[in-house]
Amino acid sequence: MRIDIITVLPELLDSPFGHSILKRAQQKGLVEVNVVNLRDYADDKHKSVDDYPFGGGAGMVMKVEPIAACIEELKTQRSYDEVIYMSPDGELLDQPMANRLSTLGNIIVLCGHYKGVDERVREHFITKEISIGNYVLSGGELAAAVLCDSIIRLIPGVISDETSALSDSFQDNLLAPPVYTRPAEFRGWKVPEVLLSGHAANIDKWRLELALARTKERRPELLKDK
After folding, report:
1. pLDDT tens digit string along 1-27?
2. Which end of the chain is more exposed for a tag (fewer CB within 10 A), N or C?
3. Ramachandran assignment for 80, one of left (phi > 0), alpha (psi -120 to 50 degrees), beta (any other)
């Protein structure tokens, strides 16, 4: 998989992709993450990528010209399955969406800034708009990092134990059950006996029961289709 991230602040993405699982995924050659500085496509000496909105109002708007030039140049190099715009009014990111996106070959992710992008970008270049929650960030870079993390960790070979990703919260519309590790007792707080029993079927049953109970208590809307 290749992910091209278009941004006006590429340095914001140095840390998320330079450590841990995302770094190892790139080192293994399982994913290629290319951060593109949108200012490289500006056509004036000041490298401007924003301007005042027509009709007045507060804030600035990202210009169509540099974004169009950037996306069109990338498309001359390869085909893309999706051109994604990170936007508060996009489709809410969830596990099924991450699962689907992780199977794609190449995607572009555009990070918004200021008051957003010229609407013509959304009309003519964007194939999918994604939100990570019902709130507004200063820019799309952190949202893009969240999206990429949710996708990349699902690519086969990225996580050493691939069954780990399959047992994450939301994979089966359930929250994950409680987990424990050593010591078996701490300050009188004991690990449930079933987890120490070695009886796989009983452990699986306990985990399912606890996952259902936790989901019913904390996120009952996830059970509407069950």
Report:
1. 999 999 999 999 999 999 999 999 999
2. C
3. beta
